[in-house]
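Consider the tokenized backbone below.
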């Protein structure tokens, strides 16, 4: 008995197969032309694909459009409403997120360095589809995104100028203040952020696909609910809230990019900033992202990922040479040591609720919202890797690289601020985060060239995030197989349009979006929570199947999705004896 998807495809193909054999006199009885409405529906179906989940696509896209329109029509009312909800969410859900991220990192480390670390994702015979450099480059470029440039210079300088509450009492202007500023930045962008984005949820997602489930957020609940989550309303709701969260989180970097490039062009080339320039930047990015996501993972996304890494390495080298290598290295070691020393209390700090809502809870909610969709992308490119590979290449190597990246930019900013007080903090305070990195580049030799390279890197980072998340969002709305190019391009276009409209609204629109990002993370947190125990459970099951643990046949097997090949090989049931009669 074929699967529901197979039956749908068979019904769709049946007329074409049965037509000639029906009578053999097609010339006398030409095929009737379908009515215009039927033809339009057929074109739409072919465009978006028969496997596209129309309700998920319509509801998630419709809710995003509704939010953007409300911000455009009534920006003040929308901002006030979202900020009120944000205050409540940050106060009451922030502690849960802090514990969840810390626990995720702890469980991921235990899995990676225990006997389960040898488990091969996708089955014992699976082999990696991408080389290690390509694989890590795609992961890092997608997660670091534009935030890695937008916040890398500004956040450490901000914490240096205004000491975070956790380090209250540290004397400003000292090396200790620089270490504290970097430690606080590492707490936001370090181990916890990367672990929740690419470890436990990815293991559950790969296992679900191995058992016949699609690469959709609902698969994260498969170890608990079994096969019924595939077609349930709960599964649809899970997909929708996860799509909305990651769309909000991706529109943010696109909007930040427009602000940063506009400011950079006005400072470096004297081009008047403002909305026309910001809109032009967003349009350019959207066009490139659409072309990239339409070309697929093996072409566009992979190309931009490699380009990002090499350009980032080159820029770090330039900053080290033109800035102060000694200060940056001292600050990195000092900041990393401070971060490790304060790791647990800093991660769980609940001192100043208002400050936490603006910084720690905001970042944790942002990354948490990315979790399910990022796990789809990581699962898509990580088959054949071991659990240990996955943990090291998502929760250890990228965080260390990110922390060094923040030290190169933020440490250089602190160094320049020490030599010339107000040079970086002045624009940071008066303009915002988008001014910090450009102001820093202006103070270095060949400042204009460095600034242009920074803007180019920001664009390529955001392009990579936009196209990879467009792929993941499209996959979240696809019942089976790969998402179509049209649906992937639709999401890239929609996110670019949303960013353009919110930039038009002004600071109120961007502020409302930042608050909205945190609000959307509330349901996602409860979807990611079960991975703390389901990921170890499925890792244990895979270890038994791959001979890494002795089998325990008395254990009840996990629920398994019935795929078409399995159904074809099921033995025929024996006829019931009660149906046989003799006379």
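A designed sequence for it:
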């Amino acid at each position: 008995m074929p699967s529901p998807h197979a039956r749908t495809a068979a019904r769709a193909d049946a007329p074409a197969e049965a037509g000639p054999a029906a009578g053999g006199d097609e010339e006398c009885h030409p095929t009737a032309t379908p009515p215009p409405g039927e033809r339009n529906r057929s074109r739409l179906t072919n465009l978006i694909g028969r496997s596209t989940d129309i309700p998920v696509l319509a509801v998630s896209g419709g809710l995003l459009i509704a939010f953007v329109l409300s911000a455009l029509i009534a920006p003040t009312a929308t901002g006030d409403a979202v900020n009120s909800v944000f205050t409540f969410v940050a106060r009451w859900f922030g502690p849960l997120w802090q514990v969840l991220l810390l626990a995720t990192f702890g469980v991921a480390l235990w899995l990676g360095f225990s006997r389960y670390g040898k488990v091969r994702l996708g089955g014992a015979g699976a082999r990696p589809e991408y080389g290690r450099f390509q694989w890590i480059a795609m992961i890092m470029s997608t997660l670091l995104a534009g935030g890695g440039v937008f916040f890398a210079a500004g956040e450490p300088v901000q914490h240096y100028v205004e000491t975070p509450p956790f380090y209250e009492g540290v004397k400003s202007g000292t090396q200790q203040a620089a270490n504290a500023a970097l430690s606080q930045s590492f707490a936001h962008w370090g181990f916890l952020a990367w672990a929740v984005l690419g470890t436990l949820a990815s293991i559950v997602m790969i296992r679900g696909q191995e058992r016949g489930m699609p690469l959709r957020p609902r698969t994260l609940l498969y170890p608990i609910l079994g096969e019924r989550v595939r077609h349930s309303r709960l599964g649809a709701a899970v997909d929708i809230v996860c799509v909305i969260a990651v769309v909000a989180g991706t529109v943010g970097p696109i909007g930040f990019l427009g602000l940063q490039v506009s400011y950079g062009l006005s400072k470096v080339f004297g081009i008047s900033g403002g909305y026309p320039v910001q809109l032009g930047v967003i349009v350019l990015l959207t066009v490139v992202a659409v072309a990239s996501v339409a070309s697929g993972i093996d072409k566009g996304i992979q190309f931009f990922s490699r380009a990002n890494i090499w350009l980032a390495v080159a820029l770090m080298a330039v900053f080290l040479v033109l800035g102060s290598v000694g200060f940056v290295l001292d600050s990195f070691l000092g900041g990393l040591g401070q971060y490790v020393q304060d790791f647990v209390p800093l991660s769980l700090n609940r001192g100043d609720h208002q400050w936490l809502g603006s910084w720690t809870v905001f970042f944790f909610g942002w990354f948490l919202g990315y979790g399910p969709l990022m796990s789809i992308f990581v699962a898509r490119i990580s088959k054949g890797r071991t659990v240990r590979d996955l943990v090291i290449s998502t929760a250890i190597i990228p965080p260390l690289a990110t922390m060094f990246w923040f030290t190169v930019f933020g440490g250089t900013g602190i160094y320049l601020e020490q030599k010339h007080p107000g040079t970086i903090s002045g624009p940071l305070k008066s303009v915002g985060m988008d001014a910090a990195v450009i102001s820093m580049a202006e103070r270095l030799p060949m400042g204009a060239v460095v600034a242009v390279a920074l803007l180019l890197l920001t664009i390529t980072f955001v392009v990579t995030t936009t196209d990879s998340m467009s792929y993941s969002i499209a996959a979240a709305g696809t019942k089976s197989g790969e998402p179509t190019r049209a649906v992937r391009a639709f999401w890239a276009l929609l996110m670019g349009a949303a960013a353009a409209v919110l930039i038009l609204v002004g600071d109120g629109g961007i502020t409302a979006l930042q608050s909205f990002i945190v609000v959307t993370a509330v349901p996602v947190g409860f979807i990611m929570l079960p991975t703390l125990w389901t990921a170890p459970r499925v890792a244990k099951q895979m270890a038994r199947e791959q001979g890494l643990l002795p089998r325990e046949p008395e254990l009840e097997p996990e629920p398994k999705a019935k795929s078409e090949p399995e159904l074809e090989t099921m033995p025929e049931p024996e006829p019931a004896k009660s149906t046989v009669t003799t006379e």
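The chain has a mean pLDDT of 82.
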